[in-house]
Amino acid sequence: MERSSREPLNIVILGASFAGLSAAHGFLRKTIDDLGITRTAPKYRVVLVSPSTYLYWNIGAPRAIVSSTLIPHSTSFIPILDAFRSYPANRFGFIHGSATAVDFSNRNVTVAIESPPTSPTQLNNRWSHATIESGGSNTPTQTIPFHALIVATGTSAESPLLSLHGPHEKTVAALDAFHAGLKEASSVIVAGGGPSGVECAGQLATFLRNRTTDPQSPPPLNIVLVSGNERLLPRLPPAIGAAAEAKLKKLGVHVMHHVRLLSAQELPSGVTRCVFSDDLSITCDLFIAATGVWPNTSFLPPRVLDASGYVQADPEYLRVSGAGDRVYAVGDCAAYSKNTILDVYESIPTLLHNLRNDLWEYELKVQNPYGGAEAKLEALQDVAYSRNEAITQLVPITRFGGVGMLFGIQLPSFLVWLMKGRNYRTNKAVLAVGQGHNPYAADTYVYK
Of 65, 133, 332, 368, which residue is the least packed, with the fewest Cβ within 10 Å? Predict the structure, then answer.
C-alpha cells in the first residue's frame, strides 16, 4: 500500500485552552514535518477535542466581571476553529465535545458530542476509524482511536464567571447575569483570599466604589472578601499579602480572615445566603466563589490520578505512568504543574520533543520488526522538564497597581499594572489562540 493512501494516525489532544492549543500548533507547525523518517512511516493528524469552540480569556475575568465595556465579550471569547483553517484537512480535525472515558488497553477515547460536525475542520465520518452512536441519555458519543494522547483538560473554577463550564455560552450568560445584577446590587461577597478573589474584589471596588446615593444611580456597593487563611495571598510572602489587604481596605473592601465558606444558596428572593465556618450567615445580592479549582479529569481511570484527581505524569518526561505508550499530560490537570500559565508554556517544548522521539521510535520499530535499528533507537535522547520553583504571581488590585512577584522577585505596584493590570494581556489573546503564543512572552511566535 502506498503511504499516501493510508489512513493517518490520530494524535488526540483533549482540551483546547492554553496547553492544548499550544501543543496542537506546535505539533502541526514543526513536529509533524520532522516525522516520516522511514519508508514505511505513517501519516499523522491532530484531533483536538474541546467542550467549547471558544477560548475564554479568563486571565481577564476579574475585570470582565465588572462590565462588558471594560473587556467586551468579543475580547474575552476567541473562536478556536478559525485559528486552524490554514492547516490541511488531512492533518487536523476538531471535535466539539467532552471526553467521557479513555480505554488505554484498546487505545481509544469516548467523547460526548456537543454539536455535530459542520465544517471541513471538524472530524467527520470519512475518517473511518471514528464511530458515532447514541448514548444512553440521547447524547451522541464518538469513539476516537489514538496513536498518541495528550491530556490537556486543565482545571475549572467553582464559578462560571472565572472559567468555562462546557460551551462558552454558559459563561457568557453568567457574565451577562452578573452585569445585570450589579446595576441594582448593594452587596457582593467574594469567597477566597487567593489571587482570583483578591483581584475580583479589587476590580469591583476600583470601578464601582464611587457610585452615588442619588435615587437615579445604583446604590453604593458593599464588597466583602472572605479569606479562609490568616492572611491574603498565602503563597506569597506575608508582607505582600498585607500590602494587598491595605490596598483593598483603602478601596473600601471589608476583609474577613479565618472564615471558610460552607454553603452558598440562592434564595427565591434572588439574594444568596452564605453560611460560614464560624456559624456566621450573611446574605448578599451577588456572590463570587473564588475558592480554588479542580482538575477536569473525571473521565480518566482512578489509577492514573493522584488523591486530588490530578494526572500522575512523570514530572520530567511528562508521560503518564501505566497508561501505555505515547500518553502524556500537560498543563494544570497534571500533578507536576503549579497551576500557572508559565508552567504550560515552559513544559510544551519538552512534551513535543519527547512525543517526536516516541513517534520516531515507533516508525523505526515498524520498519525493523526483527531488529537492526538499535543504534538509531539509542540515539533518541529525551529532554527533561525542570519546573521553575520561583514564585510568579501578578495580582492587579487598583486602577493603576497591585502586588506580585516575578520569578521570586517582588514587583513594585506600577509594574504589576504594566505587565498585567493595564489590559489583562487581552492584546495577546488572538496570538494565544492563533499561534499557541505565550501571552507573557516577549517574542511574537512560539514556533518559528
Answer: 133
pTM greater than 0.90 (yes/no): yes
Q: What is the pLDDT of residues 204-214, one digit of tens each?
A: 999 997 665 55
Whole-angstrom Cα distance, residue 425 to residue 359? Answer: 36
How many other C-beta atoms lie within 10 A of the C-beta of residue 69? 8
Pairing of strands 261-266, 272-276: antiparallel
Local confidence band at 215 (pLDDT 50, 70, 90 cut-offs): low
Q: Which three cell numbers stand for residue 166?
A: 462546557
Cβ contact 170:156 at 8 Å: no
